[in-house]
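Incident log, structure service

09:12 report received: a user says their structure output differs between two submissions of the same chain.
09:20 pulled the input from the user's history:
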Amino acid sequence: MLHVVSQVHSRCERSTVVNADDHAVAGFFEDLPVLMFVLAGVASLLLSGSWVAGCEQHHRASEELRDIAEDFGGRLLDAVGASDPTSPAPMMASVEDLDVSAVSGALGRTVRASVSIVELYPDVVWVLTWRSEDQGEISSTGSFGALFHARGSDGNTAVMELRVVVWHSL
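09:34 re-ran on a clean worker, output below:
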């Protein structure tokens, strides 16, 4: 069912008075505060976006360095254990004679790194330290650490700690 509604509008006449004075703000100057507000908002979005991109780039570089350190440390542990694969623990002599430069060269890339192996038990002794030749200014680092056992010449087992720190230079 369709209903038709009719309305009657009354006309109200009003007089409008325009004052001629110099106190009104009109035209271009009205838009300046709005423009400043919009520009400030855009600037804050751009600055926060660039900050987040920088943090993401630093995070990726740190992850890459941790992966390199883990790969390098794993290869060092394999090189120590390769001297006598039938033994449950490598000999202390193989740890002391470890050629870190050869393992570093086998990575297939230039690595700026520091390697240390410390005997933690029964005595605290620095067994091996190595540092790459190209030092440079450090910009970001990644690290790897592992504990392993080694047998001494007297047959006793020592607890060893391997530490690998790699870095990017500026």
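09:41 both user submissions now match this output. Likely a transient worker issue. Closing.
09:42 reviewer note: The helical segments are 28-81, 92-96, 100-106. The chain has three helices and four strands.
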